[in-house]
Amino acid sequence: MPIIIGRRSFGRIVPADLAQFGDRDDGLIAILKDVRFLTTPLRLDPHISKIMEPINQVSGGKISYFNLPLELLLHIVYYLPPQDVACLALCNRAFLNALGSEAWSSLSQKARDAFLLTLTRDLPSCYFCHVCLSLHLRDRLGPPAPINWSLLKYACTDSYMEPPLWDCFAALKGHVSGYWLFFAHVQLVMARHYQGPAYGLPLDMLSYTEVKAHTEPDGAKVTILLSFDARICSRSASLCLRNQQWILLRPQHKLPVKPGPVELSDVLDNTPSPVLACSFCDMHFQLDKCDLGDETKAIVITKWLDVGAGLTILDPKWQAHALGGSREFPEGSEDVYLRFERLPGISGSMLFSQNASHLMGNRYKKTMKRLYRHTWHSHTPPAKTELVFLRAAVIYLMFSLTSRPLPPSFSSLSSSLWTLFLPLTASIVRVFDHQLNQFAPMSDAYNIISLVGTWVSVLLAVAQVFFAYRSQCCSNPIRDVEHELSTLVTSVSNQKRIAYETLQVLRDVRGNLERIQRNTAAPSISGSGGRSATNSSTRN
Length: 540
Description:
Layout: E1 3-5, E2 8-10, H1 24-33, H2 46-58, H3 70-78, H4 82-89, H5 93-99, H6 102-105, H7 109-119, E3 126-129, E4 134-137, H8 183-195, E5 208-215, E6 221-233, E7 238-249, H9 262-270, E8 276-277, E9 283-293, E10 296-306, H10 316-324, H11 336-342, H12 348-359, H13 364-367, E11 369-372, E12 375-378, H14 384-401, H15 408-425, H16 430-436, H17 443-472, H18 477-521, H19 527-539
Antiparallel strand pairs: 1-2, 3-4, 5-6, 5-12, 6-7, 7-10, 8-9, 9-10, 11-12
């Protein structure tokens, strides 16, 4: 039976004859050792031949794939899977002429999916959609929250095979979460983990906090807080989510209470809830309560989910949450909440305190942005810190420029403006705002004033450079300007280092203060031993 590839037929090459070699790899090695009967050369395009000349020279005269006879190339293709043959046909015109366009037009559905997945390795801006079985641009997919309603117009996001994860994040019956996690989000986040920062989406994009005033069927309003964060478990190569839900109970929300002993009630109040497992899907959850003052209590539900490795939409871990499924774990597998909490990141107690601070005194109305009439949300872009360091670099440049001799009139004007905007442009404090969340009540006003102050400092810097060089008549102003620009660039890294060193110093001071307080509060020991201990603690 002859082989037909493209428009040419080769009757001499019969793959069945290779059975005498046994294994496919052994057959290929035998063919490569004996190529005396291969007489048809591979004809290259002249333009491609010119391109390959320097490559062949660098290779030291070694045989290239482009110099192989056509029969040998076809034998190599015989051992490749169909998706790899299609990729080989896309390399250049020579391979396309030899293999023909049928290399990818005749692919089966399974081979076509593998072919498109292979192409995404060289296309960082695209991802393979497992629903419509085609390539999509990465930029069209926004974060899981707020809901990207424009994304829902595509048929692949409205399919039964691609339901977003939002129902399992509902805190109450009838409550619709604003966090819609599609499989494409999991796929792109894991793609960055597998292939590097040029691919996929950052893990921080999955972090989100939302506060919503939910209306019950009887007209009562209940405040609900939802927070999401994600981590990648490297051992199991899977994406794990943590969702914490806060449901505020006002005095008017009367719950049915079963009478019982007061002692038993106190024990139950002070006993933490164990981590439970859902019998229907792959989820762990924990119940807790919190007293927020003003007769306001909150029920706290923390959920841990494992949504899989993001390689296929048929992943049982993903389908267990999206479509529902049985709970099946491999032997010796660890619970998802243990894997999540052991990874570096914000701890459960810190997340509990952070969410409680948002709800105390309706503080979320000041710390979060208003999304809808009764909805506030918080989603910080990762590039915010770099802007902080850039502002600090502008301040550093301003300090270096104020030492130049300036006209008296301009000096008086600039000094007054500089005195006014210097505290406002010192945006390096926002690093601690981002890490410790201490300045959240005035964050909105601070951002506006800091932005204005930043632009004013830039204008002052430009004006001071202009007047300085005009008054001094420098012999080589271009070299001085280059020096100032290089100073501006290097100061970005310097300010970043100073910020983290300052934070470390503050932590050390706090630890020393706590140690001194513990030593002061310790009961004094009578006798000479007590006096010596007191003296040693005083010296410390």
